[in-house]
Amino acid sequence: MAGLFLSSLTDLGDNTNKRVADSETVRPGDVCPALEIFWNRLGCRYVNGNQTVFFDRVNGFSLYMQSSPRRFQLRERTSKSHARVDSLVGSLSSLADYRRYLDGMQAFRLPLEAMLLSAPLPAILSPWCPRSIGAELLTDLADLHVPIRRHATAGAERDISRLCGIGYVVEGSALGAKVLYRRAQALGFDSRFGARHLARQSEDVGSWRVFLAVLEDLDEFDIDTAASAANATFAAAEHAFAGLQIDAA
Question: What is the CATH code of the structural domain delimited by 69-241?
């Protein structure tokens, strides 16, 4: 990796301001897989899992750990609505389950993506760009002969905190996609047939990491507004999956 040399990564514990690595130089665009850091400019803070990483240019080019609350505040405030969606998605243990899941996904994801992509995001959210899986999902629907439906699309959202709440759900779904993809593979589907959208989501969580970095670096942010938008997004998913009846044929 260009310009990044790591020393000890052991004994991080729960302490704040814990020195975990040394570097001679970190350049914009460098990625450190061991720490899951995405650098897009020098001297700023970025998310590393459940913590924020600060790049200290003065004190020996060191990296320090500090508590990072926003992601976990959103997780806590959306845990119940998230759990309801998970229960509706189910275990995907049969073809009928999987076809029903695909139908629910199109009802939820396609209008949501259309809304997010209907206008450029505010520049303050750069470099985050919402991951799109709509094209792959439409192909998966066709593979399994699930009828493609027409969906109403909401107008573009411009509020920064609301966009962060929506992004928390959209980008965080990549983590759950890893589990769902394994279940789809057990049914015989993969990146070439039937589970393209899950393969795309699960093979790279880089967009999630970039989103978390942006989330932590925002000055203009209201956690109540973000949590409300995240819960509303989960509620839209709950509505999309509730009551679907798709035959296995």
Answer: 1.20.910.10
